[in-house]
Amino acid sequence: MKHTTPTNDENSTQITDTNDVPMMYVPRDYFTNNQLAIEDAIGFDKYAEILYDAGYKSAYHWCEKEAELNHLSGIAVFEHYLNRLSQRGWGVFSFEFVNVDTGNAEIKLEYSSFVLSQPEKPGKLCNMFSGWFAGAMDWCTKRKGHYAHTNCEGIDCAAQYCAQSKCGDTSESFCIFTIKPSAINSQT
């Protein structure tokens, strides 16, 4: 399956955007090597925490803007998010199941850019995505009239907040992320 992402190149400024979001397109190895250098310098756990928090905020903000721009609501925004991530080369994302009413979901990731860039490296390589998925789910649950502050907790978890129960670096050819609420609060 070939993915395409609509882009706009403004010749006078050399700014490229996708759906009015300024973008920088870089080779996968460039991005991965920069990420690994930071992880090596500050440690896996600290970097996973930073990525989770930053990714959460970014995904939440992205959902807000894309819902407005594309006149989407509910789970359609999260589905749109997974589609855009897939189109932009992070991997191929899909829901195994999702329930916005409870804040639960399982996301399958095939052809992870992190696994493909580091085929010899063991461990959970895709922890960057966990904050993204929690932020998108929290955006969806808040729009449903409740707020399920989601964390991804799990048994086989290298990242602090992520239940990445399967990873493409093992005998599996895909990764699985599990989103679970830490609490559900009704909005008043």
List keywords for this structure.
three-stranded antiparallel β-sheet, 188 residues, Muramoyl-pentapeptide Carboxypeptidase, domain 2, alpha+beta, globular
How are the SSEs placed, and which strands pair?
Elements: E1 8-10, E2 15-18, E3 21-23, H1 28-42, H2 44-70, H3 75-87, E4 92-99, E5 104-110, H4 113-117, H5 128-143, E6 146-151, E7 163-166, E8 174-186
Antiparallel strand pairs: 1-2, 2-3, 4-5, 5-8, 6-8, 7-8
Helix pairs in contact: 1-2, 2-3, 2-5
Describe this structure in words.
The protein is of the alpha+beta class. It has a single domain, classed as Trafficking protein particle complex subunit 3 (Muramoyl-pentapeptide Carboxypeptidase, domain 2). Helices cover 40% and strands 26% of the residues. The protein contains five helices and eight strands. Strands 4, 5, 6, 7 and 8 form a five-stranded antiparallel sheet that branches. A three-stranded antiparallel sheet has the order 1-2-3, with no helix packed on it. The longest helix has 27 residues, at 44-70. It starts with 7 loop residues before the first strand and ends with a strand.
Using the coordinates above, name the CATH class: Alpha Beta
Radius of gyration: 17 Å
**What count of helical segments does DSSP give?**
5
The whole-number mean of residue pLDDT values reads: 79
Largest sheet: 5 strands, antiparallel
CATH level-two architecture: 2-Layer Sandwich
CATH homology group = Trafficking protein particle complex subunit 3
Structurally, the number of domains stands at 1
SSE string, helix = H, strand = E? EEEHHHEEHHEEE
Secondary structure category: alpha+beta
CATH overall fold name: Muramoyl-pentapeptide Carboxypeptidase, domain 2
Query: Low-confidence parts, pLDDT < 50 over ≥5 residues?
Result: 153-164
